[in-house]
Design brief:
Blueprint: E1 5-8, H1 9-38, H2 47-71, E2 73-76, E3 91-96, E4 102-108, E5 119-121, H3 125-130, E6 138-143, E7 146-156
Parallel strand pairs: 1-2, 4-5
Antiparallel strand pairs: 3-4, 3-7, 6-7
Helix pairs in contact: 1-2
GO biological process, one term: regulation of DNA-templated transcription elongation
GO molecular function, one term: translation elongation factor activity
Keywords: DNA-binding, Elongation factor, Protein biosynthesis, Transcription, Transcription regulation
Length: 158
């Protein structure tokens, strides 16, 4: 049985856009680069040819990876979710109980997690500590710097 991959509609759309870019832009560009490098003669010492082939290998691998992820995607429409309990898709604001510093995260699927955008994987330690909790709850989360305590300030679905 293939395992489903939970993801938001936004995450699924990003994968679709990347796949389209790889198929319609990156693939033809690398094929052109290989053809041009071949015209330069001896392939055994042709760095351009080898670089283009490596790029082609990467593109084909990424296309296969995205196609697999999309085939197994379980798209969850976050806008249809509600409540004040943390679950997949929630945007959660937590406050560090030591510093009162607030941070907001959205809990998303593994393939769309991006710390720079404050999107954390549903399987991450922070998300696992938050799931099932509600506004006002205090949670203990194991971080690289040790145990931290956070209070859930806000839970929303957008």
């Amino acid at each position: 049985m293939t395992q489903k991959i939970p993801m938001t509609a936004e995450g699924y759309n990003r994968l679709q856009e990347e796949l389209q870019h790889l198929r319609l832009t990156a693939r033809p560009e690398v094929i052109q680069a290989i053809a041009e490098a071949r015209e330069h003669g001896d392939l055994s010492e042709n760095a351009e040819y080898h670089a283009a082939r490596d790029r082609q290998s990467f593109i084909e691998g990424r296309v296969a990876e995205i196609e697999d992820q999309m085939a197994r995607a379980e798209v969850i429409d976050v806008s249809k979710l509600s409540g004040d309990t943390v679950k997949f898709g929630a945007t959660v604001t937590i406050a560090d109980e030591d510093t009162d510093e607030e941070t907001t995260y959205q809990i998303v699927g593994e393939v769309e997690a991006d710390v720079k955008e404050n999107k954390i994987s549903v399987t991450s330690p922070i998300a696992r500590g938050l799931i099932g909790k509600s506004v006002g709850d205090s949670v203990e989360i194991e971080t690289p710097k040790g145990q931290k305590y956070f209070e859930i300030v806000d839970v929303r679905f957008q």
